[in-house]
Write a structure and sequence with these properties.
Chain A: InterPro entries: EFTu-like_2 (IPR004161), G_TR_CS (IPR031157), GTP-eEF1A_C (IPR054696), HBS1-like_N (IPR015033), P-loop_NTPase (IPR027417), Small_GTP-bd (IPR005225), T_Tr_GTP-bd_dom (IPR000795), TRAFAC_GTPase_members (IPR050100). Chain A: Belongs to the TRAFAC class translation factor GTPase superfamily. Classic translation factor GTPase family. EF-Tu/EF-1A subfamily. Chain A: Keywords: Cytoplasm, GTP-binding, Hydrolase, Nucleotide-binding, Protein biosynthesis, Translation regulation. Chain A: It catalyses: GTP + H2O = GDP + phosphate + H(+). The structure holds two protein chains of two kinds. Chain A has 15 helices and 22 strands. Chain A is of the alpha+beta class. Chain A folds into four domains: 107 residues, no CATH class; 103 residues, Elongation Factor Tu (Ef-tu), domain 3 (Beta Barrel); 214 residues, Rossmann fold (3-Layer(aba) Sandwich), CATH 3.40.50.300; 94 residues, Elongation Factor Tu (Ef-tu), domain 3. Chain A has a six-stranded mixed beta sheet with strand order 2-3-1-4-5-6, sandwiched between helices. Chain A has a six-stranded antiparallel beta barrel with strand order 7-9-15-12-11-16. Chain A has a six-stranded antiparallel barrel with strand order 17-20-19-18-21-22. The two termini of chain A are 55 Å apart. The radius of gyration of chain B is 25 Å and the shape is flat. In chain B, 34% of the residues lie in helices and 28% in strands. By secondary structure, chain B is an alpha+beta fold. Chain B has a seven-stranded antiparallel beta sheet, covered by helices on one side. Chain B has a five-stranded mixed beta sheet with strand order 10-9-8-11-12. Chain B folds into three domains: 128 residues, Roll (SH3 type barrels); 130 residues, eRF1 domain 2 (Nucleotidyltransferase, domain 5); 124 residues, 2-Layer Sandwich (60s Ribosomal Protein L30, Chain: A), CATH 3.30.1330. Classes of the chains: A alpha+beta, B alpha+beta. The complex binds guanosine-5'-triphosphate and magnesium ion (MG). The site of magnesium ion has 6 residues of chain A, from helix 9. Guanosine-5'-triphosphate binds next to helix 9 of chain A.
Chain lengths: 584, 400
């Protein structure tokens, strides 16, 4: 009866075979012509399957019959049956040479199968990952990680009272700031200059950058290379992803998050801004440049950082050399920017303006030495940065860290993640939970600002070396949290949104720091009063206009870690359409 | 699809015999066949026999079955259509009332008789399906760093074929750039391998590569370089079929934007998806103007038609084909009547959009139906709205 079983399994719809279980009738066996077809077909299928398939002739014949002697379909089917009934291991086995196309359940099958069974996504936390290939096992990062067994999870910790340790350590002031502004405003150059003048970057390195960038015909970007380390970034003279650099002043240790200005890379800028305590907005004072920048990312960036909770902005009005240090120009730009920023919800007392030239270092670390700049009597940029108030840290809250990057931290540390600790504290030996994978792992090493440490607390930029968890459970945008107080994952949530553009029920991307996911606004629930946040009675909105506030329902395909009060950005078609607060 | 035989009475009842020739035709069949219809097609049944000695053996036989359709199941990836229902005609091997699933096959006739008659939408669909001029398929690879969606656009469908997702470590300080570049290279290679498994290099179909930044460009460079390195002539010959375009992200819904970029439009103008994309973006533009000339959602649109605003002189109704796939006959009739009214009585235009194209999904988000009006209308007085909230079971959402 094994044949019967197989035949049964063949049918996509089992009911098909319910037919007449006991009916008996007389009719001919397979005709001679059919038999010949079957024989030829079996030979062909055998050839395609190879010898090791372990599939019987009977099985092949049955499938051939079902598929009208179509050998390709038969092979596909048999292989899918095989991979269904065998442990996953067999899938990875290379199925030989040139025939690989027809053999080995191609990733296509995996996807296809997943889609066949696709039903409306249940609103549950647990959900299988979307069908993908190139899963991280292909990635070099993972090699070696799989060997780690559960025992390794038990990393010995010292059970420190981290908060007491932290107090004992007499922490310095620390602050992250994100450098924002329109493309080519001179953000990277300015930061490169700042790091150079503070001797964080030595002259030899800069010399090398000078020579190499000149060779590429990009000599004017030598200072920017301090931040722009990417191959593509250097070849093209444009920042693509956030660069993180540290420097210390007498009072404070700062971390620069140099954001890209180009609109294509706003998702990266959002990731950087989400880790910032305040922002430095760089503006190109050049004729026409300020104006076009204002319409472009100067405005968008400023609105974005505001929506992400940044309250303080230092405005560096840059490239003043190109307008002969004109005080009028500086005043004009300052006024316009101040007006715009206050209308966007920044308090005037939280804004500071400084005229500067990043390229030469005027008013960056030292005062400008250009005589034309003598009208400016205020402090240089660095001094303004120093006057920033210390950040409050969410030390007592449950652990939260949004993964900025997943990478190989070295030979000893095949799997590491980096990010800013948003809340809580952590120490070596702790068990953590990765969401949305819901996988536990152990902390086997910690680096705080690139120095090894036993522990870390909220507000610090850290690297965690992990053990006992496979790399495939981790990606940037995931949240690492305390197993006892995990972040929830949602597939649908309500949000109070400030519209930047017109909003209707529509497709969009949801951004929260490094996390981004495709989703949809499925319902415009209510228009809200901008000042009070109260619902405007009456009309259910059919269109949310730019500048107005509304409550909307958002849905995503796969669960994302998001909690009440989380600040999200909604984008569509490369444009920020709104920013909001997760309600529940 | 070939029309083999057609006998439809003036009252719309009757049957049609069709001959599906390519996978795409299964999609048409899926849209055409409705629960309640009678479908005749070839099938295989397993028959158990008992010999004189009492031993039983199992056989499979090809037979023609007539069923009353109850359920349809379409597999997007393989374009296979399974139609199930009760057998309504006795054969040598089957009895009336037995349940059966017919798997429609290419190159085999099927005959369809409509219970509710052949309405305008069904008849148009047959006409469209049998139109010998086919719009060419297009491949699209929508990418961002570490993420790629491979889709194929046929005239009437967008099918996501594959998603590639890999971790690409970000840049991190001195000397570590190698990790990023290596991972990116690997990502390109995987995406390329995946693409090559999908496309047939002997055909010349446009292959759209789109991404933010420089990923698509970098990918094309990788493809051509490795084709040159490995001496893959067939792939090198595809060079002119690649079109690099901009997209805001690597998610599939960015396809909408890609189909509107000039480079792409130049290649695809006059294809159904390009037209539908344009139509949707025109509608959105009109909606954003907020001048009362754009209606969306079933109730708004029906009101607008009622008031004569979707007629001659620019009235257009956009409707998703999914509305006609409703299992409920009454629902289908509601939409057929609406489009008939717009076309025949009002003199407006009717555009039925594929729900699988991104433009169609956008329309689905708006309730599956929208209209551009010939004169502005005010929407929704408060009374109606309250009803709406109640019918949605949604009253609690406004109480916070
Ligand atoms: N004249 C003058 N040129 C400058 C100044 N600062 C930067 N530049 C030039 O402006 C160009 C862009 O500089 P970047 O530092 O790459 O600009 P960016 O804002 O980091 O650009 P993205 O990161 O790509 O948005 C380079 O050619 C710089 O040499 C300045 O103060 N004066
Ligand atoms: Mg830069």
């Amino acid at each position: 009866m094994s044949r019967h079983k197989l035949v049964k399994a063949l049918d996509l719809d089992e009911e098909l075979d319910d037919f007449n279980g006991g009916a008996e009738s007389d009719y001919d066996e397979v005709s001679a012509g059919d038999r010949e077809q079957l024989r030829l077909g079996t030979i062909k299928v055998r050839e395609m399957l190879g010898d090791e398939s372990g599939i019987t002739n009977q099985e092949i014949e049955d499938s051939l019959w079902h598929y009208y002697y179509d050998a390709d379909k038969t092979v596909t089917y048999l292989l899918s049956q095989m991979s269904n009934s065998q442990p996953k291991k067999s899938k990875k086995k290379k199925t030989g040479d040139g025939k690989a196309k027809a053999i080995g359940p191609s990733p296509d099958d995996v996807v296809r199968k997943a889609q066949n069974t696709k039903k409306p996504a249940p609103k549950a936390v647990e959900q299988s990952a979307p069908p993908t290939i190139g899963d991280k096992s292909i990635n070099g990062i993972v090699q070696g990680v799989s060997e780690i067994t559960i025992e390794d999870t038990k990393v010995k910790g010292k059970n420190l009272d981290v908060l007491a340790e932290f107090k004992k350590s007499k922490p310095r002031n620390a602050a992250n700031f994100v450098v924002i502004g329109h493309v080519d405003a001179g953000k990277s150059t300015l930061m490169g200059r700042l790091l150079y003048d503070l001797k964080v970057v030595d002259p030899k390195t800069l010399d090398r950058y000078r020579k190499e960038s000149e060779r590429l015909g990009k000599g004017s970007f030598a200072l920017a290379w301090v931040l722009d380390q990417g191959t593509e970034e250097r070849n093209r003279g444009i920042t693509i992803d956030i660069a993180m650099n540290k420097f210390e002043t007498e009072k404070t240790s700062f971390t620069i998050l140099d954001a890209p200005g180009h609109r294509d890379f706003i998702p990266n800028m959002i990731a950087g801004a989400s880790q910032a305590d305040f922002a430095v907005l760089v503006i190109d004072a050049g004729t026409g440049n300020f104006e076009s920048g204002l319409k472009g990312q100067t405005k968008e960036h400023a609105l974005l950082v505001r929506s992400m909770g940044v309250q303080r902005v230092v405005i560096a009005i840059n490239k003043l050399d190109t307008v002969q240090w004109s005080q009028d120009r500086f005043d004009e730009i300052s006024q316009q920017i101040a007006a715009f920023l206050t209308s966007a919800g920044f308090l005037a007392k939280n804004l500071a303006f400084v005229p500067c030239v990043g390229l030469t270092g005027d008013n960056i670390v030292r005062k400008a030495d250009d005589p034309k700049a003598s009208w400016y009597t205020g402090p240089p940029l660095v001094s303004i940065l120093e006057s920033s108030e210390p950040v409050t840290r969410a030390l007592e809250k449950p652990l939260r860290l949004t993964v900025d990057d997943v990478f190989r931290g070295g030979v000893q540390n095949p799997l590491s993640v980096s990010g800013r600790l948003e809340a809580g504290s952590i120490q070596i030996g702790d068990t953590i939970l990765v969401m949305p994978a819901k996988e536990a792992g152990a902390i086997k090493g910690i680096e705080v600002d690139s120095e090894p440490s036993e522990w870390a607390v909220a507000g610090q930029n850290i690297i965690l070396h992990l053990a006992g968890i496979d790399a495939k459970y981790l990606k940037s945008g995931d949240v690492i949290c305390a197993p006892l107080a995990p972040i929830q994952c949602v597939t649908s949530f309500k949000a109070k949104v400030l519209a930047f553009e017109h909003i209707t029920p529509m497709h969009c991307e949801i951004h929260k720091g490094r996390l981004h996911a495709p989703g949809r606004i499925t319902q415009l629930i209510a228009q809200l009063d901008k000042a009070s946040g109260a619902m405007i009675k009456g009309k259910k909105p059919r269109l949310i206009k730019p500048g107005s506030v509304a409550r909307v329902l958002v849905e995503v395909d796969n669960p994302i870690p998001l909690e009440q009060g989380g600040r999200i950005i909604l984008r569509a078609g490369g444009v920020t359409i709104g920013a909001g607060l997760v309600e529940r | 699809m070939r029309l083999i035989k057609q006998s439809i009475d003036r009252d719309g009842s009757g049957n049609i015999t069709l001959f599906p020739e390519e996978p795409e035709d299964m999609w048409f069949a899926y849209n055409l066949i409705r629960p309640g219809d009678r479908l005749r097609a070839s099938a295989i049944r397993r028959v158990t026999t008992e010999s004189a000695t009492g031993s039983t053996s199992s056989q499979r036989v090809h037979i023609n079955l007539l069923i009353a359709v109850e359920k349809l199941d379409f597999d997007t990836q393989s374009a296979q259509l399974h139609v199930s229902g009760r057998i309504i005609e006795e054969t040598k091997y089957t009895k009336v009332g037995q349940f059966h699933t017919l798997d429609l096959e290419l190159n085999r006739n099927f005959n369809l008789e409509k219970k509710e008659g052949w309405d305008s939408v069904a008849r148009n669909l047959v006409k469209e399906a049998c139109d010998p001029v086919k719009s060419a398929d297009v491949w699209a690879v929508i990418m961002q760093e570490g993420l790629a969606h491979l889709a194929v656009l046929t005239g009437h469908r967008t099918v996501l074929r594959q998603k590639v997702e890999m971790t690409v470590p970000k840049k991190r300080g001195m000397g570590r750039q190698g990790d990023h570049d290596k991972a990116l290279e690997k990502f390109f290679q995987t995406t390329m391998d995946t693409l090559l498994r999908q496309i047939d290099l002997t055909e010349t179909k446009p292959i759209l590569l789109a991404s933010p930044g420089f990923i698509a460009q970098g990918f094309l460079k990788h493809v051509l370089e490795s084709a040159a390195r490995t001496g893959n002539k067939a792939l090198l010959a595809q060079r002119s079929n690649f079109v690099v375009a901009h997209s805001a992200s690597g998610y599939l819904h960015s396809l909408n934007e890609v189909l509107q970029t000039p480079e792409v439009l130049a290649r695809l103008k006059d294809t159904k998806y390009a037209r539908e994309t344009k139509l949707m973006s025109d509608f959105m533009e009109s909606l954003f103007k907020d001048d009362g000339r754009a209606a969306y959602g079933p109730r708004e649109v029906e009101q607008a038609v009622e008031k004569g605003a979707v007629g001659r002189g620019g009235g257009v109704i956009l409707i998703s084909d999914s509305l006609f796939r409703s299992q409920d006959v009454c629902v289908r009739r509601r939409w057929v009547n609406l489009v008939d009214k717009v076309r025949d009585t009002e003199g407006g235009e009717v555009r039925i959009l594929s729900s699988t194209h991104e433009s169609g999904k956008q329309l689905e988000g708006l309730g599956g139906v929208a209209a551009m009006l010939t004169f502005p209308l005010e929407y929704l007085d408060e009374k109606e709205e309250d009803e709406d909230l109640i019918t949605n079971g949604d009253t609690n959402v406004i109480t916070s």
